[in-house]
Design a protein that fits this description.
Elements lengths: L1 H15 L2 H11 L5 E4 L2 E5 L4 E7 L3 E7 L5 E3 L4 E6 L10 E6 L5 E5 L1 E5 L4 E6 L6 E2 L4 E10 L5 E7 L2 E7 L9 E9 L8 E9 L11 E3 L3 E3 L1 E7 L5 E5 L5 E4 L2 E4 L3 E5 L7 E2 L3 E4 L5 E9 L2 E11 L10
Parallel strand pairs: 2-9, 11-19, 20-27
Antiparallel strand pairs: 1-3, 3-6, 4-5, 4-7, 7-8, 10-12, 12-15, 13-14, 13-16, 16-17, 16-18, 19-22, 21-25, 23-24, 23-26, 26-27
């Protein structure tokens, strides 16, 4: 028995050097390798167990698996298992081989194996800046993904609220081991974007053999505060006719972030009115009143012209 085993092992070792030649000859002759791996493609989470079967469809002298961590062979059966209790080898490429009694004498099949690892973390930030941002300027958001594999299966999606605004793939990269990658999104915010929430989502697209739904890790939400200069809803000059002793209301409310401060000026006012959006008084006489709303990003002014109404005339506002 021991002699037979040594003979078969010797035959196998000699055949290794001829394997590719034999495989090429088999391909040229059109003969089948007669080996089938089941499943032919597997997707394994880092650290999980794995078991794959290799079956020969004709009598075989030696049937086995070449593997760095779990080599095995058989002389009597038409099938042999490749088993690993915890797969942690990122470069493992198991090969099933067969040494046959008839031509082609030797052939092999390689197992298509994908070892994956979800990211440790996904984070989002403003590049070289912090919120708030200024309206109309360019900013970059960065999404960073830590320790993910295989990176070529990674799809990184950017969202503004519930809307996807950008999709970044890494198919051009080749590392099998976990890596750190990042993606950048250019934004030019306006005042409508004030309070907008951005996030990114890392998804491993591992195919039909992979887990369903695909493994996904999301970042926290990044809320963007946008600063913008004051603006009036109706910036045009207002002309108002008044009757004697009637109370006037001059509304200078403007929208801005930070909230604007207000200054009223007029040759009629006895003193300057500070930080009042609405000027209300019965003693406002005829004349031109200028309101200026300002914040750190700019200022806007608006004029109110008060005229005395002649008797018998109705109130007018222009």
């Amino acid at each position: 028995m021991k002699t037979n085993l040594l003979w078969f092992l010797g035959l196998y070792i000699i055949g290794i050097g001829k394997r590719f030649l034999c495989a090429n000859n088999a391909s040229l002759s059109g003969d089948s390798c007669s080996l089938e791996i089941s499943p032919s493609r597997i997707v394994v989470k880092f650290g999980d167990p794995v078991s794959v079967s290799c079956v020969a469809s004709r009598p075989v002298r030696v049937l086995g698996w070449e593997s760095v961590i779990a080599a095995s062979y058989t002389q009597n059966d038409l099938s042999v298992q490749w088993r690993v209790d915890s797969l942690t080898d990122w470069i493992e490429e198991p090969i099933c081989y067969g040494v046959f009694f008839t031509a082609p004498r030797q052939c092999e099949e390689k197992l298509n194996i994908v070892l994956y690892k979800k990211p440790d973390s996904v984070s989002i930030s403003l590049v070289n800046h912090s919120s708030p941002v200024a309206e109309g300027r360019e900013y970059h958001l960065q999404c960073e993904v830590q320790n993910v594999a295989p990176v070529q299966s990674l799809a990184l999606r950017w969202y503004r609220g519930k809307t996807e605004v950008y999709n970044h793939s890494f198919s051009e990269l080749s590392p099998a081991t976990p890596v750190q990658v990042s993606s950048t999104l250019l934004i030019v915010p306006n005042r409508a974007d004030n309070g907008a929430q951005y996030r990114c989502e890392a998804e491993l697209q591992l195919g039909a053999e992979g887990p369903q739904p695909p493994p996904t890790v999301q970042s926290d939400v990044l809320s963007i505060a946008v600063q913008y200069p004051p603006d009036f809803r109706s910036p045009e000059e207002e002309i108002l006719d008044i009757s004697e002793d009637s109370e006037m209301v001059l509304d200078c409310t403007a929208e801005g972030n930070p909230p604007p401060v207000y200054i009223w000026t007029s040759s009629i006012l006895q003193e300057q009115a500070d930080n009042q959006a609405v000027l209300r008084a019965a003693s406002l006489g005829p004349g031109v009143y200028t309101c200026t709303a300002s914040n750190i990003l700019g200022k806007k002014s608006k004029q109110f012209v008060i005229k005395h109404k002649s008797k018998g005339e109705s109130n007018k506002t222009h």
